[in-house]
Amino acid sequence: MQVITKESLLAAQREDLRRVMDMLSLREHHARTLLIHYRWDVEKLLAVLVEKGKADLFAEAGVSVVECEDTGSPLLSSSTAMCDICMEELPGDTMTKMACGHRFCNDCWTEHFVVKINEGQSRRIRCMAHKCNAICDEAVVRSLVGKKHPDLAEKFDRFLLESYIEDNRMVKWCPSTPHCGNAIRVEDDEFCEVECSCGLQFCFSCLSEAHSPCSCMMWELWTKKCRDESETVNWITVHTKPCPKCHKPVEKNGGCNLVSCICGQAFCWLCGGATGRDHTWSRIAGHSCGRYKEDREKKTERAKRDLYRYMHYHNRYKAHTDSFKLESKLKETILEKVSISEERESRLRDFSWVTNGLYRLFRSRRVLSYSYPFAFYMFGEELFKDEMTNDEREIKQHLFEDQQQQLEANVEKLSMFLEEPFDQYTDDKVMEIRMQVINLSVIIDTLCKKMYECIENDLL
Ligand SMILES: [Zn+2]
Ligand SMILES: [Zn+2]
Ligand SMILES: [Zn+2]
Ligand SMILES: [Zn+2]
Ligand SMILES: [Zn+2]
Ligand SMILES: [Zn+2]
Ligand SMILES: [Zn+2]
């Protein structure tokens, strides 16, 4: 992984362009067109070259390289020529011939470029000639546009530069707000988590916050679920029923199936139908709702179960996210304790175990919190219903929860030790905490690794 800053963007792009230009002896705009077509994947481009040859490589990307000596050069000033766009007879030095061989007057070219740049099409401005698909030489565009509209020439360059990120499969802008200006390039796996030099950790694939071990799909579903009011609505449907007369939600209190609304209407809790008040424990006078009641009850049971299940996972998820936030705030105080300790007259000098421990704590805390939505979907029915039998599901769930709980216990312990006021302790006691933190860091590393192994080998 590599962070590309505003300053290094140009150099990074140049490097790729240069490689392709040298290898295929191409001009810059042809190399760029090729690279944009292959989404700046130089290796892929080379593979196509080896496999299919130069002609096919160019044809696929729509590059037509016509060798032409006087490309982009004006004619001798003495002669005149006709511009086929504005139909004027003009001196040769006010006209420009593109690599495809088409020649038009500079005013017509400039007009054409301005329109294309404003349309956001800097990446592939084609020749004006009818049915000519050739991409115009960037140097010509730059120089002609620059003469009349220097600001637009700059925009053109910026667009070309940004194409390196926007058309590149392996490079993406950092999603920070306000934008830090950086982009991230990954090496070979586009499904990974990265950290920008601005400190933001994000999922390279979906650009949301880093969410492993959840897949992007799980994470998307989970955030939507948490956002939706639907669960609350669900709660209300489970615990209340609308009055058949005034439609206000009415809660059931007690075991009796006859409930009454504040408006005075009595109704049957099981089917929601209006009834009289005359009833016994098992039946309401003049009212029967038989089979319908069973379905209704099943549905209610089911909604209730789903809701409790979600709440179980959400509570854990939230507890860890909250701890994470608290610990991030604590970071300042803990680092403060380090500097106090370093000032002290003592034989202890090295406090890197504190920063290392904190780093482990933050990392494992994140993994833990995301492991709950992961489990919610992994062992739920929404995504993997038909992937395994109920028995398999149960075995896998136990396996995973074992890992999760071990990790959880050790993360809490680590958090506890790091919060100790070690700056006020004797050297011996600090040494003891140091040992604990170092040991726990190792255990947590192993447990995190084991949890991912469990996910990869046993669950998926
Ligand atoms: Zn013209
Ligand atoms: Zn042309
Ligand atoms: Zn950033
Ligand atoms: Zn993602
Ligand atoms: Zn009512
Ligand atoms: Zn009653
Ligand atoms: Zn009923």
TrEMBL record:
Enzyme nomenclature, EC number: 2.3.2.31
Entry cofactors: Zn(2+)
Keyword Repeat among record annotations: yes
InterPro entries named among the record's database cross-references: Ariadne (IPR045840), ARIH1-like_UBL (IPR048962), E3_UB_ligase_RBR (IPR031127), IBR_dom (IPR002867), Parkin-like_IBR (IPR054694), TRIAD_supradom (IPR044066), Znf_RING (IPR001841), Znf_RING/FYVE/PHD (IPR013083)
BP-aspect Gene Ontology terms: protein ubiquitination
A single GO molecular function term of this UniProt record: zinc ion binding
Recorded catalytic activity of this chain's protein: [E2 ubiquitin-conjugating enzyme]-S-ubiquitinyl-L-cysteine + [acceptor protein]-L-lysine = [E2 ubiquitin-conjugating enzyme]-L-cysteine + [acceptor protein]-N(6)-ubiquitinyl-L-lysine
Pathway: Protein modification; protein ubiquitination
Keywords: Metal-binding, Repeat, Transferase, Ubl conjugation pathway, Zinc, Zinc-finger
Domain RING-type: residue ranges: 79-293, 83-131
Pfam families found in the cross-reference section: Ariadne, IBR, IBR_2, UBA_ARI1
PROSITE patterns according to UniProt: TRIAD (PS51873), ZF_RING_2 (PS50089)
Source taxon at top rank: Eukaryota
Entry function: Might act as an E3 ubiquitin-protein ligase, or as part of E3 complex, which accepts ubiquitin from specific E2 ubiquitin-conjugating enzymes and then transfers it to substrates.
Homology family: Belongs to the RBR family. Ariadne subfamily.
Designated name of the protein: RBR-type E3 ubiquitin transferase
Organism in which the protein naturally occurs: Theobroma cacao
